[in-house]
Design goal:
The chain has 2 domains: about 160 residues, no CATH class; about 120 residues, no CATH class. The chain is elongated, with a radius of gyration of 19 Å. Helices cover about 55% and strands about 10% of the residues. Strands 1, 2, 3, 4, 5, 6 and 7 form a 7-stranded antiparallel sheet that branches. It is built from 12 helices and 7 strands. Helix 2 runs antiparallel to helix 3 and helix 3 runs antiparallel to helix 5. About 5% of the residues have low confidence.
Length: about 300
Amino acid sequence: MIAVYAPQLLTQYLGMVKGALSTAMVTGALAGAASGAILTRSFSGAMKGALFGPLSAGAANMIGHGTGVFAKVRSYGSVAKATLHGLSRMAIAKLQYGTAKGSFLSGLAGSILGGYVAKNFSQAHIAVKTTIAAIAAIAGGTASAIGGGKFANGAMGGAFIMLFNDLVRGAYTRTFKDRATLSASMKDGDVIYGKRTLSALKYTKWIQQSQADDRLNSEINHEHIFYKEGNNLYDIGYSSTGTFNGENPADYIFSNTTYNTNNFNLFINNPSGYTPNDYHLFKHNCQDYADYIHGKL
């Protein structure tokens, strides 16, 4: 986990790259080099990891958040997405002269089990995210070993799938001038995340964009959820006053990733632990609430 998370945080805090895919590939190169060096204790192992790391991370990110054919595959459900992860791991393994069967099973298992864990546990804290990635790594490694491959290779693949797919909500670049424009871009069941300047800083119009802080829920922004039920657009967020709505989309930038659900009770029923008394600016805030809902979609 250190080999994956350390480069991830480094690239995002230092602003080495911009964009979810670019960040994933650069992080993949650094994480691949670190893990290759740890696993093989050699310079050649580090170089091999640096070469194939971007392929692994980039593929996982595109399968989880890419448009076109990737979005089409995701529309068929989690099994279809997991199968694509398996095929991508198999293709990368063939380039590395690895075991195709073991790699396919590691991608399949890492995606299915990791996705299940991500959807059923709150992802508000870095320790929880690390645990989820570790579970995906164990699942991927075990499946790889069953298929005749190496546990270590499968474990790295499972962790990459989780970190660059299920634990990422995508870049925020979309804007809409009003509720009608946003609503027209959505269909029934669509869910979109948005970020705006904090109320205390509203005149600055400054919105922090840091994927590292996004993962740690420490961005200096308000994060809000917009969703469409039937022909009606709704929104919900969390603050020191509890859950609230009535936000103007014009104040927000929106995630490039759109989710879809038929479980609208997520937004109607106030979840336990998100009352006004539970709010804490640094430990239990609007971004933690957004992560909680994301984990249930």
